[in-house]
Amino acid sequence: MRSLILDTATRLLAPLLFLFSLFLVVRGHNEPGGGFAGGLVAAAAFILLAVSRDTRAARDTLRVEPQALIGVGLLVAIGAGVVAPLVGDPLLTGEWLSIPLPTGDELELGTPLAFDIGVYLVVLGAALTMVLTLAEEQ
């Protein structure tokens, strides 16, 4: 039996949870937060969708298998870690790239952000694999 209140709340909360998870990832490579916390919040958004409707709706919204997210996340995290030895630094040393912006400022992107994105994908994929599999067995 579906709840109108839960369906309405899910339509409002799920996109906000997902955006907050992205904020945690971007902020987290220099501050508290990061890929793990962001991945859990994103998983909560999809789990809320699965509870309010069904697991098929959550899987259709995700559009990829959760196991694929785990694989891609591992590749991204490992790739971010091995950049440093390629330029002569120890493994997992943060490497930075400065991109000049038209405003005169510079955008600094680094391997810690890429590592956090990899962790985000692994945590999201692992949490959804466990929860959706358990929910489908009931």
Q: What is the gist of this entry?
A:
The protein has 138 residues and is mainly α.
What does this structure look like?
The model has no long low-confidence stretch (mean pLDDT 92). The protein has a two-stranded antiparallel ribbon. The protein has one domain (4-137). The protein is elongated, with a radius of gyration of 18 Å. The chain has five helices and two strands, in the order ααααββα. Strand 1 (96-100) and strand 2 form a beta hairpin. The protein has helices at residues 4-28, 35-52, 55-62, 66-86, 111-137; strands spanning 96-100, 106-110. It is mainly alpha-helical and 138 residues long. The chain starts with a helix and ends with a helix. Helix 1 (4-28) packs antiparallel against helix 2 and helix 4 (66-86) runs antiparallel to helix 5.
Radius of gyration: 18 Å
Give the tally of β-strands. Answer: 2
Strands side by side in the biggest sheet: 1-2
Major sheet characteristics? 2 strands, antiparallel
**Gap between N and C termini, in Å?**
15 Å
Residue ranges: pLDDT <50 for 5 or more in a row? none
